[in-house]
Amino acid sequence: MIASSNFTSCNFSFLPIRNHSCSRKSQLSPLNYSSNKPRSSFISLVNVINPNDIERATKYLAFLNNYDEKKKKKKGLLQICHSAFYVRTSQDPVLVPLKENGGRSGGSGGDGGGGGDGEERDWTSSFLLFTFWAGVMYYVFFLSPNQTPSIDMYFLGKLLNLKGDDGFQMNEVIVALWYIMGLWPLVYSMLLLPTGRSSKGKIPVWPFLILSCIGGAYGLIPYFVLWRPPAPPIEETELRRWPLNFLESKLTAGITMAAGLAIIIYAGLSSVDVWKEYFQYFRGSKFIHITSIDFSLLSAFAPFWVYNDMTARKWEGKGYWLLPLSLIPFLGPSLYLLLRPSLSAAPVSQSPTLLDDK
Q1: What is d(CA 330, CA 332) in angstroms, rounded to the nearest whole number?
Q2: CA-wise closest residue to 237 among 151, 343, 162
Q3: Neighbours of 128 (CB within 10 A)
Q4: Which keywords annotate this record (predicted)?
Q5: At what angle do helices 331-339 and 172-192 cross, to 10 degrees?
Q6: Comparing C-alpha atoms, which of 134, 139, 184, 176 is closest to residue 159?
Q7: Does the model's pTM come out above 0.90?
Q8: Is the omega angle on the peptide bond into residue 243 within 30 degrees of 0, that is, cis?
Q9: Phi and psi of 151, rounded to 5°?
Q10: Are 1 and 17 in contact (CB under 8 A)?
């Protein structure tokens, strides 16, 4: 109460005095009072208070305000509420704000993206994609149908040409599925090299592409989890070396699309009985079941990487009409690979430093 009364008295330069002994316009200044008359008890109380106590009380109130704001703000941004009873001085306590990367000033902390650059990474999409991949793998190993394990081994031997001509004719749809699964790693190699490489995470893509030759999408999705754009810049000399000169060739894209189209036509011309037999194998055979899911996953992720490659080549303005077509399994991405501009004609993504500066 004493401090509050002092604030009230000190925030006004003068106080009007209602006294019959003084004139109506006479005013009393508490700071410049030079009259010989006894002062009022209120003014005397102000002079009795120690100015150091007033300063300490002011600092204490400012500290309480700052402490409450620090609890409300996650990153510790300082907010000072000015009022008519408080005037901040250079000696008032000030809370040191936290750095944007979550660490305190002068420290090395932070939960950023690593490397001490204070950059945070949003792991939400990676976590969700990893959860999806883990769920798929759990289904493949523990929940998928496995009623014909001996038939699965026989089919695998026949498709690998390890079985001789024993008179058994393989289902045409299963044969087409097997061969088109062998073309998918080539399509993804042309989409991920070089525009799908990860520059910030330093995770090479080629081990996952090799793994996809055996595991398909089950081996590629972990790279999707770890992938961090943008891709590093490409030099002109690198385009003339293996494997980019092969993957960027229009001849490679044309042969891939022609082979895929022939396989799809071969399966599409099969009779209704052949398709019914395929669906029976799908419901009972673990090998056919997980291979069909693998084909669906590769077809589902392909449009995203088509768009990523298209934007890296600065071709989204002219090639936007290919995005809906990329939803067509295998044929859509293959058509894009055939029509996309070469890297020598269109710049790839800029270096990470330049992108961060923008």
Answers
A1: 6
A2: 343
A3: 11
A4: Membrane, Transmembrane, Transmembrane helix
A5: 40
A6: 176
A7: no
A8: yes
A9: -65, -35
A10: no
295-309: average pLDDT: 96
Tokens 């070396």 belong to 241
Q: Other C-beta atoms within 10 Å of 340: how many?
A: 23
**C-alpha–C-alpha distance, residues 61 and 82, integer Å:** 11
Other C-beta atoms closer than 10 Å to the C-beta of 266 total: 15
Query: Is residue 297 within 8 Å of 304, Cβ to Cβ?
Result: no
Question: Can you tell me whether residue 163 is helix, strand or coil?
Answer: coil
Provide the residue count of the chain: 358
Tokens of 206: 């080629």
334 exposed, middle or buried (CB, 10 Å; 0-12, 13-18, 19+)? buried
- Per-residue pLDDT tens for 78-99? 333 333 333 433 333 333 333 3
pLDDT in tens, 97-109: 333 333 333 333 3
The answer to whether residues 9 and 46 touch, using CB atoms and an 8 Å cutoff, is: yes
269's tokens: 């011309």
For 54, the enclosing helix (H) or strand (E) is helix 51-72
- The CA-atom distances, in angstroms, between 221 and each of 130, 195, 209, 218, 330 are 8, 17, 10, 6, 18
Question: What angle, 0 to 180 degrees and rounded to 10, lies between the N-to-C axes of helices 272-284 and 172-192?
Answer: 70
